[in-house]
Design goal:
The protein is an alpha/beta fold. Helix content is 25%, strand content 27%. The chain starts with 16 loop residues before the first helix and ends in an 11-residue tail after the last strand. The structure holds S-adenosylmethionine.
Length: 228
């Protein structure tokens, strides 16, 4: 299996992705915790700061964390409201000058340029999203020597007795093969599942499994360097 499909969700009317996510953010003052994702912290803390692209940045917690560590970050999201919140969180954290926010509907448009880190954390959606196509574009945006970091839920939380709607979650091997990265120019540094504890909205303890891929674009040797 190399394809990840999001099937029509019976709980959600067939809205356009932009409308769906805009409504999701407008419906509550804050959707996410404001803390950086644990697998970003685990996988990116050792990387030397450079330029970073955060795809589906939401309210900006990951981008602000990176900027506070010296990265120059471009955060991308489909929702204007999420981007406004991200910009104000960056200003509160004193890193507005190291952050840029751009609205894109990924799958339709994609930011220009190449980056030392391209980060995609939970770029998953109950409405239409060409996840694999976007991740392949993400790989093309990684500069030589740079890193592609992808984190995705591998399944529903344990406390859900049944899936709320049909959704196929990306597998470690499936996503790697969908990326189609030539072995000679990419090095897979992390490809693993992590189980983390989580609590349901009703307070039930459980866990959820996330998958992580950290893949480095190999730096081509400079011509003649082998000969001094
Ligand atoms: C599950 S949330 C993850 C947010 C954030 N990365 C995090 O880990 O907290 C998915 C994010 O992707 C954004 N998104 C969904 N479809 C998108 C698209 N086609 N283009 C750009 N952003 C999109 C949503 O607005 C949302 O902020």
């Amino acid at each position: 299996m190399t394809h990840t499909h999001t099937h029509p969700n019976p709980h959600i009317p067939p809205t356009q992705p932009a409308e769906f996510w805009e409504a999701r953010y407008r419906d509550s003052e804050r959707v996410w915790s404001g803390r950086p994702n644990p697998l970003l912290v685990r996988e990116a803390s050792h990387l030397p700061p450079g330029t970073a692209l955060d795809l589906g940045c939401g309210e900006g917690a990951d981008a602000v964390w990176l900027a506070a560590r010296g990265w120059q970050v471009t955060g991308i999201d489909i929702s204007h409201t999420a981007l406004e919140r991200a910009a104000s969180h960056a200003a509160e954290a004193g890193v507005a000058d190291r952050t840029t926010w751009e609205r894109h509907e990924l799958g339709t448009t994609f930011p220009e340029g190449t980056f030392d880190l391209v980060n995609a954390q939970f770029l998953q959606s109950p409405v239409r999203l060409d996840q694999e196509g976007i991740l392949r574009q993400a790989a093309t945006a990684v500069a030589e020597g740079g890193t592609l970091l992808i984190v995705m839920h591998g399944g529903w939380p344990s406390w859900r007795s049944e899936a709320p709607f049909e959704m196929e979650f990306p597998t470690l091997e499936g996503t790697l093969s969908a990326l189609g990265l030539p072995e000679e120019s990419w090095s897979v540094e992390t490809m693993s599942a992590m189980r983390r504890e989580c609590v349901s909205p009703e307070g039930v303890d459980g866990f959820r499994e996330d998958n992580v891929w950290r893949i480095r674009r190999v730096q081509k040797p400079e011509f003649g360097s082998a000969f001094g």
